[in-house]
Amino acid sequence: MRRSAPIGLTSVMSVSERARQLLYERKPFVHATVVRAQPPTSARAGDEAILLADGTIEGFVGGQCAQNSVRKAALGALQAGESLLLRVLPDGDVHFPDAPGACVVVNPCLSGGALEIFLAPRLPSPLVRICGGTPIADELARVCEVLGYEVRRDGADGGFDGATAVVIATHGGVEAETIRAALDAGVGYVGLVASRARGLSVLETLDLAEPELARVHTPVGLSIGAKTPGEIAVSIAAEVIAEIRCQGIPVAPRGPEDVPARAAVDPVCGMTVTVAVDTPHLTVDGQDYWFCCPGCRRSFAAARAQT
Fold first, then answer.
1. How far apart are CA 121 and CA 165, in angstroms?
2. Burial (0-12, 13-18, 19+ Cβ within 10 Å), 161
3. How far is CA 225 from CA 136, 140, 228, in A?
4. Cβ contact 290:278 at 8 Å
5. Chain-centre distance for alpha carbon 220
6. Which end of the chain is more exposed for a tag (fewer CB within 10 A), N or C?
7. pLDDT digits (tens, 9 = 90+) for 218-239
8. pTM across the whole model
C-alpha cells in the first residue's frame, strides 16, 4: 500500500511544533501516535498526527479507511478528556497482540493490516484573568497558580478572549465597562469584588439580560465566612471551580472556527463517518453524501450512473 504524505503540516513544522502552537493558542486537540502497525497498513509505528475539534487531521496515522475510525475515536476522547488506546482491525481473523483496556474498532473497509493508536487529548487549563493590583487580586493569583490554572493580570481595558473566568478586584474605576467587555468575549464566569450594595449599583448601570446576569457574580466567592485577602481568594477560586466542574462553563470559549464536527452515514457500507474537510464527498441531485473512503464513493457514483 502506498504511503501518503502527511496532511495539513508544512514542511518546516513538525507535529510537536504544531502541538506547542495549539497549546499556546489554547486550542483543544488530540495527539495521535501509532504504537503498533501490522502490514499491509500504510502507517508505521511512530507516525503521529494532530486531530482538531472540527475533525481535521494534521499528520499521518493511516490511510483514508483508517482515518475515519481514528477521527471518530479522537473526537470522543476529546469530549471525554481521557486518553484512549484504539485498535483498528479489518474484518476477519487478525493476529494482533492483545491490549487490555483498548477500544477495538472493526473497519470493514480496511484492505488488510491492523493499527494500534494512542490518542491523548490535550485540553487548555483554565485561564483566569485578574483585574486590579489589590491584596485580594495578588492572593487570588497565587491560589490559581497552585491549582495549575493559567493566570494573567490585566488592566481594566478588556482583552478577555479565551478566558475561563475574569475577576475584577479594582475596588472602583471602570468596573461596568470591564464586565461588559468580559461578557462580550464569551467569558462564562465574571466576578466583581464589591459589597452587595455596590455590586448591585454597578450592575444596574449595565441593563443586562437574564442569561448575562447569571454569569456575573457579586458579591464574589462562595459563602464560607472569608475575611482576609487569602480567605477571600480561596472562596473565589472555589466558586470558579464549582462553575467549571458543576455548571459546565467552558474552559476556553469557542470561536467561529471551533464548530464541532458532525456525523453522516456512508450510503455504501453503512459506516458512520465524521464530516471533515478531507472526508470523501459527493453531491448528487442536490443532496450531499459522505463516505468512509474513495472506494465507497466510486462505488456509489458508478451505481448512480447506471440508474
1. 22
2. middle
3. 15, 16, 10
4. no
5. 28
6. C
7. 999 999 999 999 999 999 999 9
8. 0.68
